[in-house]
UniProtKB/TrEMBL annotation:
Ranges of Polar residues composition bias in the record: 31-44
Family the entry assigns: Belongs to the glycerophosphoryl diester phosphodiesterase family.
Sequence ranges assigned to domain GP-PDE in this UniProt record: 103-372
Keyword Nucleotide-binding carried by entry: no
PANTHER family, per database record: LYSOPHOSPHOLIPASE D GDPD3, PHOSPHATIDYLGLYCEROL PHOSPHOLIPASE C
Region spans: Disordered: 19-59
Domain of life: Eukaryota
Protein name stated in the entry: GP-PDE domain-containing protein
Keyword Protease: no
Length: 378
């Protein structure tokens, strides 16, 4: 049979054409997919090559880290051991400093719980209790007189809304008949003496009694007058510069560098930081006094913040940082005397002295003297 003689019906011809086109379509798809498969194969090869390159990099990083740890850990360990050793033996690097006096009993504002604060009567009462230190604050009048006053504005003390600096000494009003004791809320002090006194009156009346003079404002004239009065009465070694602000303390030191310094707020923070980092043995300490609040009085008699939650947090943190025997003993051996303020209850006296503090400032010198005498007898 010849091929040319084969004839297909129209229906058969359409069926054969469709089968031929389908078979060509499948073959075309396979042909078109071949480059895609090749590309996928090539991509997998590149990915494997990248992974193989990263493995040596990670190995080098791990080796470098191991090398750092190999040298760093022994160094840190040696540093920690050396710091602990020197913290326990501070005199190996720092010769002891003999204190000029030992303030076991400090009268805060002259003993403001028993007499009107900062009056001569209060100072006399404190000295009758054998106080070792009088703590007071100074302001400057319009005519250049250094007066003993805690506040610049006289509203709380005298009921007169005037600043000390706006009045001459002779114009200063009398104190109120009673004043609330700041660190014993709800308690009031009374006294027959209501006059403000000059700093030189205190120096003349108690020539060899140690005094802590706190300066609250950056008043250079006031600072220089205090420094000059201390020199004039030959009290350089027994009169302490005190201020919370480092900027003020810098000016105080310049005015009379022979007076002993106390820690400012920032210097206290720095001191604690250096101590807990183990660096304090390698750092000089120019201050001779740490006049610091006892953390346990926060939220009881001392409220540094208006928010009670902040006060509770402050009490917890500062108690952990400050109330440590090891810290206070170290400072004492470095020649820094620690005096806690302002404590008015026997439990607080006990807490401060049990930590090894040199002394306590109180508004009630009679109560503190009774405590000291009874424990000395025991």
């Amino acid at each position: 049979m010849h091929l040319r003689s084969i004839q297909l019906s129209p229906a058969a011809w359409r069926w054969a054409s469709s089968r031929l086109s389908k078979s060509q379509g499948r073959g075309g798809d396979q042909w078109r997919n071949q480059p895609t498969l090749a590309r996928q194969s090539q991509g997998g090869t590149v990915h494997r090559r990248q992974l193989s390159r990263r493995q040596p990099d990670r190995s080098r990083e791990a080796a470098a880290m191991s090398s750092v740890l190999y040298y760093a850990l022994p160094a840190l360990g040696s540093y920690a051991l050396l710091s602990i050793f020197l913290l326990r033996r501070p005199r190996l690097l720092h010769p002891p400093r003999a204190p000029a006096f030992c303030p076991r009993l400090g009268a805060h504002r002259g003993g403001s719980g028993e007499r009107l604060e900062n009056t001569m009567e209060a100072m006399e009462n404190a000295m009758a209790q054998r106080s070792d230190l009088l703590e007071l604050d100074c302001q400057l009048t319009r005519d250049g007189v250094v007066v003993v006053s805690h506040d610049e504005n006289l509203s709380r003390q005298s009921g007169v809304n005037r600043d000390v600096s706006s009045l001459a000494f002779e114009e200063l009003p009398l104190y109120k008949e009673e004043l609330e004791v700041y660190f014993s809320p709800g308690h009031f002090a009374h006294g027959s003496d209501r006059r403000m006194v000059r700093l030189e009156d205190i120096f003349q009346r108690f020539p060899r009694v140690p005094v802590s003079v706190e300066v609250k404002e950056e008043n250079e004239q006031l600072i220089h007058k205090i420094g000059s009065l201390v020199r004039h009465f030959d009290r350089n070694e027994i009169t302490i510069w005190a201020s919370e602000k480092s900027s003020i303390m810098k000016k105080c030191k310049a005015a009379n560098p022979d007076m002993p310094l106390s820690f400012t707020r920032w210097r206290t923070i720095r001191l604690l930081l250096l101590y807990y980092l183990g660096l304090l043995p390698f750092v000089p300490i120019p201050e001779k006094f740490l006049l610091c609040f006892l953390p346990t009085i926060i939220n009881r008699t001392y409220f540094p913040f208006s928010c009670s939650a902040l006060n509770r947090l402050s009490a917890t943190v500062t108690k952990w940082l400050i109330m440590r025997k090891s810290l206070i003993q170290y400072l004492e051996q470095r020649g820094v005397q620690v005096v806690f303020w302002c404590l008015n209850e026997e439990a607080d006296f006990e807490a401060a002295y049990s930590l090894g503090a040199t002394g306590v400032m109180t508004d009630y010198p009679t109560a503190l003297r009774r405590y000291l005498d009874s424990h000395r007898a025991a």
